[in-house]
Automatic annotation (TrEMBL):
Pfam families in alphabetical order: adh_short_C2
Keywords, ordered alphabetically: Oxidoreductase
Protein name per its UniProtKB record: SDR family oxidoreductase
Family: Belongs to the short-chain dehydrogenases/reductases (SDR) family.
InterPro entries in UniProt: NAD(P)-bd_dom_sf, SDR_fam
Amino acid sequence: MNRVAIVTGAGKRVGRVLAEGLLHDGWQVVAHVRDKADAVPERAIPVVADLADPVAAATILAACPQPPSLLVNNAARFAADSFADFSAEELGRHMAVNVAAPALLTSAFAAAGGAGDRLVVNILDAKLVAPNPDYLSYTLSKAALAALTTLSAQALAEQGIRVNGIAPALMLLSPGQTEANFQAMHRFNPLRHGVEPEDVLWTLRFLVDSPAITGETLTLDAGQRFWRLPRDVQFLQTDSE
């Protein structure tokens, strides 16, 4: 039987690209979505769960036809806030989806057992290596997820489970971002290379095929971190806008 992979947020955007790529590679994919109306890639096994609900991890693992070998924690809450309008409630909503859910899923993944190389990949954000205070709660939650990546890699290594992160820069139009800004900022980096969802897929494939790598985060930003931008890219302008 083919290996089983779980991908959260697999109905759209980067998650869908990852799910489709894994299906192409011969994996059985358990494709998590939040809403029943969200379509999943053909041949994927759909599972509906609200990651803010602590029982979501059990629901997702129960959909697996056999113990999974790969868990991709991709789904995330991404809502704008700042120090000016910061609230404990918004931070809590981000932490529930972006940190607690991956932690619970990783724990359930480890408890499910299974033979051979097993891998957890957390999708982070390139802004963590050159941070700015925009999207404050989101950024704090991704920083916590980065810490979880390291801690779970340490905790699970003796079980033969590897845990790594992929931290991409801007890939797709973000909520609230104008098309003009996206076009200007997508390649706003030293390499003038716009990071694409397919870059994340190829990095995931690399980690799957690299059994000696654990506790690492691979940053996909075409060198943008070297510029230490003071704001999130959608709040910047260039001469081309």
